[in-house]
Design a protein that fits this description.
Layout: H1 20-29, E1 37-38, H2 40-47, H3 51-63, E2 67-69, E3 75-77, H4 79-88, H5 92-109, E4 112-119, E5 122-129, E6 144-146, H6 151-158, H7 162-170, H8 184-197, E7 200-203, E8 210-218, E9 224-233, H9 242-261
Antiparallel strand pairs: 1-3, 2-3, 4-5, 4-9, 5-6, 7-8, 8-9
C-alpha cells in the first residue's frame, strides 16, 4: 500500500486542539529585537504554555538548530533558523537590489539610511545602515514601527490599499512625542500630502531630535514595494536629502524591473549610481 503524504492535519495536537507546530511558532515569536535570550520559564509565561510543554518543545527546536542554548542555559534563536529564513525570504531580492544604493545614500547623508516594507499595520525594516555619531534612531533590522509615526510608515500607508488605510485610521494612534500624529483627520491629511509631493517628512514624530524622510521604491509594475528613508537631525534641513533619496529609489526600481524582465541593467554611463 502506498504511504499517504503527511500534511499539517497530521501534526500532533494538544488537548486544546492546537498543533505542536502552532505552539512551536508561538515559542519562536516570543523573542523580540530587544530580548533575544529568554529563560524557558519566561517563554512559558509569554506563550501561555505549561513550563514542561515549553521545555519539551524548546528541546526539540534546539535539536533541529532552530533554537540554541547559551552558556547559562538561556534560549535564543539558532543560526539554522536564520539560514532558512534568509534562504527563502521573499524580501531577499529587494534587499539585494537596494543595498548598493542604500550604501550610496548613507555615504552622502552620513546618518541612518534604511529600507522598509509594509507588513500588516507596521513598517518592517529590512536593512539599516548607521554611523557612529548619527542622530538617535529607534529602528533596527527586522524591527517594526507603527505606520503612523515614521516617514517610512506614512509613505507606505499613503500608497497602501484603501482598506489598509481605513484600518489604521480607525485604530488608536499612539503618541510618542508632542509632534506625533494622533487623530484620524490629521493622518488622512498627511497621507494626501505625501501622495501630492512624492515623499514623507516626519519632524520629531518619533524622537524630538530626529527627522525622517522617505521616498517610494517602485516595482516592475510601478507599484510601491518599499520605502527608502534617512533619519537625520531635526534641524530644518532634512528636505535637502530628498533628491539623493529619489535618485537612489529610481536606481533600485530599475534593478527590480530588470530582474523581473530578465533584461540587462546598465547604470548611467560614466557616473555614480546616484546620478540616475
Amino acid at each position: 500500500m502506498d504511504e499517504k503524504p503527511a500534511t499539517l492535519a497530521d501534526v500532533p495536537r494538544a488537548a486544546t486542539g492546537e498543533s505542536s507546530l502552532a505552539r512551536a511558532v508561538r515559542i519562536i515569536a516570543a523573542f523580540t529585537p530587544d530580548e533575544t535570550s529568554l529563560r524557558v520559564s519566561e517563554i512559558a509565561r509569554r506563550t501561555g504554555l505549561h513550563v514542561a510543554t515549553a521545555s519539551r518543545l524548546v528541546a526539540e527546536l534546539t535539536a533541529h538548530g532552530l533554537l540554541e542554548r547559551g552558556p547559562d542555559r538561556e534560549v535564543r534563536v539558532g543560526v539554522r533558523l536564520w539560514e532558512l529564513a534568509a534562504r527563502a525570504s521573499p524580501t531577499r531580492s529587494l534587499r539585494e537590489a537596494a543595498l548598493p544604493y542604500l550604501e550610496d545614500v548613507h555615504a552622502v547623508v552620513g546618518h541612518h539610511a534604511q529600507l522598509g516594507v509594509l507588513d500588516g499595520a507596521d513598517v518592517l525594516f529590512l536593512e539599516r545602515l548607521s554611523a557612529r555619531d548619527a542622530v538617535i534612531n529607534y529602528t533596527r533590522i527586522a524591527g517594526r514601527m507603527p505606520l503612523h509615526i515614521s516617514s517610512s510608515g506614512q509613505l507606505l500607508l499613503a500608497h497602501s490599499p484603501p482598506e489598509v488605510q481605513e484600518r489604521v485610521l480607525r485604530a488608536p494612534l499612539q503618541r510618542y512625542t508632542a509632534d506625533t500624529i494622533t487623530t484620524p483627520d490629521a493622518l488622512r491629511a498627511t497621507l494626501a500630502e505625501v501622495r501630492r509631493r512624492g515623499y514623507a517628512l516626519t519632524e520629531g514624530h518619533v524622537h524630538v531630535d530626529a527627522t525622517g524622510v522617505a521616498v517610494p521604491v517602485r516595482g516592475a509594475l510601478n507599484e510601491v514595494v518599499a520605502a527608502l528613508s534617512v533619519i537625520v537631525p531635526n534641524d530644518g534641513h532634512a528636505e535637502a536629502c530628498v533628491p539623493v533619496l529619489l535618485a537612489a529609489a529610481r536606481g533600485i526600481s530599475r534593478s527590480l524591473t530588470a530582474a523581473a524582465t530578465k533584461a540587462p541593467y546598465s547604470r548611467h554611463p560614466g557616473n555614480p549610481r546616484l546620478t540616475g
